[in-house]
Amino acid sequence: MISLDLLSNAILAGLLLGGFYTAVSLGISVAFGLLDVVNIAHPVFVILGSYMAYMMNVGYGFDPILTGVLFTPLFYLLGVAVYRIYYASFEKTGQESLRGLVFFFGVLFIVEVALLLIYGVDYRLVEAAYIGESFHIGPVGIALRLAVPFAVGLLLTGALYAFLARTFYGRAIKAVAQDSFALRLMGADPVRIKAVAFGLAIATASLAGALLIMIGPVEPAMNREYIGRVFAVAVLGGMGSIGGTLAAGLILGVAESITSTFYGPSWALAVSFGILLLTLAVRPAGLFGR
Amino acid sequence: MVDVLLDVRDVVKRFGGFQALSGVSLEVRQGERFGLIGPNGSGKTTLINCISGALRNESGSIRFAGRDITTLPAHRRTRLGIARSFQIPKPFASMTVLENLCIPLEYAAHAHSHGADVAKEAMEILDLIGLAPKARITPSGLTQIEMRKLELARAMAARPKLLISDEAMAGLSSAEVDDILEILFALNARGITIIMIEHIMRAVMRFSERIVVLDAGEKIAEGAPDTIVANKAVEKAYLGE
Amino acid sequence: MRRFAFLAGAIGVIALGLLVTRVVDNQYYYFAAYVVFQYVVLATAWNILGGYAGYVNFGSAAFFALGAYTSVVLIQAVTTHLVVLLVAGGLVSGLLGLGIGYLTLRLRGVFFSIATLALAVVLQTMVINWEYVGGARGITVSRPASLPLFSNYVEFLCIVMLALAVGTVALARWIQRSWLGRGLAAIRDNEDAAECMGVPTLRLKLVATTVSGALMGIAGAPFPYYVTFVEPSAAFDLNYAVNALAMPMIGGTTTWAGPIIGAVLLGTAQQVATVTISSALNLLIVGVLLVLFVILAPEGIVGLTRRLARQAA
After folding, report:
1. ipTM given for this complex
2. CATH class for the domain made up of C3-312
3. Residues 115..154 of A with a Cβ closer than 8 Å to C: which?
4. What's the pTM value of the predicted model, to 2 decimals?
5. CB distance from B175 to chain C under 8 Å?
């Protein structure tokens, strides 16, 4: 007999976690979903964001979310730079499948090992007034360290959705995904637009990383755990669909939470792997895919 | 009684919400020169992809030499005798022109005897098509028309019963078009059934014994070249009202 | 290289190895050489799928570690015979390769690669939670008694790994020059065209994945005897994932010689460097080299030398 209490707590925690998973996966949704760039290094940029939050928190007492927001422009520029290198080296020559993948793996590797060299293998965490607290809605207790990332994650998702739907650049990004030739005919430079899009994707990693280190301690190797998760969310949600990414993030969060509660936390990672494979086998276009 | 080599019935192909083929049927007879035309986006290449097995149709059936091949993977259909060239040439860039032909010879023509002396056969095909001097270089050193010839040569190397030529002449000069046309006529004379997809009308009209016209995923006309030319529906499809 | 010349070279190399064990006493060389030979196997195995067919495996550590842990299980439960361990390691990792391939190779190549990444993480988590093989703490394994020809077991293991390296290279060379290799090259160059030319692409990819995985498992099988203390962080070390990839990419992916060059150069350099610099810095350098090569010299050292030779001619 499954305890209803345990189950409802698991679902709630899963939803909160899911909102965060969405925030982490937004970058992949844009880069892989819209631009077809297989950026497996995205999670390591998120971890980089976590370490930036840590550094500013320990050094200057900055709130992690503040750091996340402050560093967003820097991450944007980093993203544009990485894309320009990627485009010049691989996309232009049509080598993106093998070499582009290896390139991003190299980038992942370099960032992870650099973080290891600078910060070591120990887990790092941040201190903020609200992290240890929780609030109550009726009989249910909700930890702020989960609720705040959930809320901020939703805000970030909403902001990105609005940007893609309402602004010129946003619509151009969605257009370049569908027909870059037509875009060129209209006078817009597809490469420039793709660079902006990729820059945005990496920019989200700054805030996502800040949220990650709020939820729990962080160490460099964690990025590889998230690769399965973010691609599972992006594929399940349907490539490039922000709304789909949100739905998929919540589903993954709940699935992991339930698995963790009833079968132990070590199986949680296998869940994202399983969801990815299942989606690819049954409905590769995802829930909301084109 | 002439045999029907390819029997396509009510083929439907969808891409997400878009229906590319809405129940297309046609028959190609053994030894025939068959033309497939239609405006851009009418579904010609999609139909060819379904016939060759690069795509799976949602419904309808495809029979080849009396056998139902609807669910067979592409490489099996090639071994049974269907070969196609690609509209945008897809050569094997790391191999020489000769080696490019060895692949279909080894895998399609001599499917289960990998020891066969394919290099000699490959050279013969290259001689026939006029690419022999280029045998030892990689495709990056070929001109436009040579690339198209290589595409055709590869399809020939599969020793097909049915060869589908997908816009092999696009963008070529008049003399080059005649060059390709000659090759296709020669192949047909050896008994190979040929489906030609082309936009170059004089080539299609000269070459085809029968023509099928597609528009927006449907067959709108079928018949000998002179009846197609006179067909009002065909004119409307190409030129509008 | 003519078949006879290769065979002679192969036997010569092993004979040389045996000779060295008679002469050299410093154990350090054997420990270091073992690692280099191991990388020759891993790099060559990776290249059969990555270089020949164009499908990138990021989870080499998973296949390697699976071979190692299969040995741990067998050593504890059934037998300590090295031959059995090698065969079992190969079988189990080969099956893993087949399984992952079957699940993902019908899709785009990137999904295979992502699956291998996720696989490594999942497998490591499972091993960490399995007490029978020591869990996170690790497990101690004792080396068997040495064989008559060798002064100690490590020297014997070193020669075994050398023989495995030679065998793996011979297999890779055979594949490359055979119909299988030509089919894989067609898949790598243009999979759609290959399929339409009669190449059974799915079947060949599954063969390559299985063979590649099996060889990595065989490389991992003697690992417990080499280290005597097996823990997940060592078996699943990031080293294996990046080196199995970087060595062929830097050496050259289109031929059987590339991985050897990459493994010997990088492997030896790393063995030397670990004495002077931290292993993390070591890895960082490998990562930077990988990125530089993939951007600037994608055809690797083999490709570079060919280009230089052509220009000189």
Report:
1. 0.90
2. mainly alpha
3. 116-117
4. 0.91
5. no
